[in-house]
Design a protein that fits this description.
The protein has 209 residues and is α/β, with parallel strands linked by helices. 50% of the residues lie in helices and 17% in strands. A 5-stranded parallel sheet has the order 2-3-4-1-5, sandwiched between helices. It is globular. The two termini are 29 Å apart.
């Protein structure tokens, strides 16, 4: 599992990703470079293949990514080892090769708000809201569906459920949903599992207060 994060301000992007990860998991690789080189790629790959009994996050944040370094990461991005999550941060998605972009979902930070921004209020999500979404999802345009998945991803960064595994399951559902929409799946099939898990996370977060 992993993602590409795009943010004009590198520090803001890094803070958002670290907020998404939270305090419990380990960040074992955090490269902040002007250019991500083949040397950093090899270091990241070596760390990825060190076995772990719980999730490890490998983070690379750079203005540019060397083409050779990106090519070296392709196999890892395609089939990451168990418990490995890779986040690549940059100011523009165009710095990444098409082969890299095709392997990871891409999320923008501080992206322009869509006109139907209030389609779903994740904080106040309940079964009635999910039912209303299900009825309206057939009219949801593909771009708006992708934006909704991104909003779900950003909302999950704020959650601290009593059961951390719930958050991980929600993030995995978000990644699957993004890929399904990219493959022209219906919005209801892509987004409904996300909404149900976020609802469960919300309830769990209440019990942890």
């Amino acid at each position: 599992m992993g993602a590409i994060w795009v943010c004009p301000d590198k520090q803001t992007g890094l803070e958002r990703v670290l907020g998404l990860i939270g305090d419990a998991p380990r960040v074992v690789f955090n490269a902040q470079k002007e250019e991500f080189s083949i040397a950093e790629a090899r270091e990241l790959i070596a760390e990825a293949y060190i076995s772990a009994d719980r999730e490890k996050f490998l983070i690379a944040s750079a203005i540019g990514y060397n083409a050779s370094a990106q090519n070296a990461l392709l196999k890892l991005l395609e089939e990451p080892p168990r418990n490995i999550t890779i986040y690549l941060l940059a100011a523009k998605k165009s710095v990444f090769l098409p082969t890299v972009r095709s392997r990871l979902p891409i999320y923008a930070i501080n992206a322009p708000k869509a006109p139907s921004e209030n389609l779903i209020d994740f904080k106040r999500l309940d079964l009635a809201a999910i039912y209303e979404f299900a009825k309206a999802s057939g009219k949801l345009e593909r771009d708006r569906a992708k934006r909704l998945v991104q909003e779900a991803f950003e909302y999950c960064a704020t959650l601290k459920p009593a059961k951390p595994l719930l958050k991980k399951r929600a993030l995995e559902a978000i990644e699957r949903g993004y890929k399904m929409i990219a493959l022209n799946s219906t919005a209801i099939n892509a987004i409904l599992p996300i909404l149900l898990l976020i609802l469960e996370c919300n309830e769990s977060s209440k019990t942890s207060i």
